[in-house]
Amino acid sequence: MYRRYWDEFPRYERTSPKEVKGGIKASSGRGDFAKNWWAKRWIQVLESFNIGARLSRGKTYARKGQVVSIEIEKGEVTAKVQGSRPKPYKVSISMKTLSPSDWSKLAGAISQQALYSSNLLAGSMPEDIEEVFKQAGLSLFPLKAKDLKTECSCPDWSNPCKHIAAVFYLLGEEFDRDPFLIFKLRGINRDELLKMILENAAEIGSTPVEGETNINIKPVLPPEPLPTDYKQFWLGSEIHNVILGEVSIPQIIAALPKRLGNLPFWRGEKSLTEGLSESYHNASLEGWKIYLVK
Asked: Considering only CA atoms, which of 64, 72, 67 is closest in space to residue 82?
């Protein structure tokens, strides 16, 4: 008996997903899932793969907060997405990482452009950085659907399914906040990349160029380590009897929390550091007033 190809696959009636409390809900509302060019580029690449209606249903899942959790590691994203069944589905997205020699080559090229380094240090992605990858015979973003290996524990035979698509879109929003996560998917984290760039920049500055004066780039001092004892971080250490120097409100409010960075996939009305900055500023004012009274 003749059977159509599609009849060989089981069919599942569309059902409504179970409501999630505290899920990662998209903050974009009905607008775009990305603001900055690098996050938009990620979304554009995914939509160019002609995945179809699954991306649209993935948007709905992302906006309803059906994604329970997302973890981003080098070359891999793991997530849990709540569907219609009691137990959330397990999602994994793998992306081919670049080799250490590839990253060394890229760091050398980036370090030769001061604008690239300054943008990255400021948490922004240089607009033409894709050209640097292209010249090295590499790519920052996936070029075709096969560059991304995706899996989901749901019964849907489609791959990627709507659960994977929901994670795709939330990743786009998170890339807006932290562009270094794109590099992490390619195999290198923020600190490792910046260290390589600074080391290459120091070598360039210490190498004489014919006809030019040798300019040495001063090594960047390591940041002050954060206290390992959480009590010391929040309560501070013992104050000496004699305080030297002028007492004033810090120029940089909430410096230590800012060094820690925002929590990933934070969905509050304000960013965590922004909310803490207000508290730190108010506390500084009160402390300053108390000191003046004494």
From this structure: 67
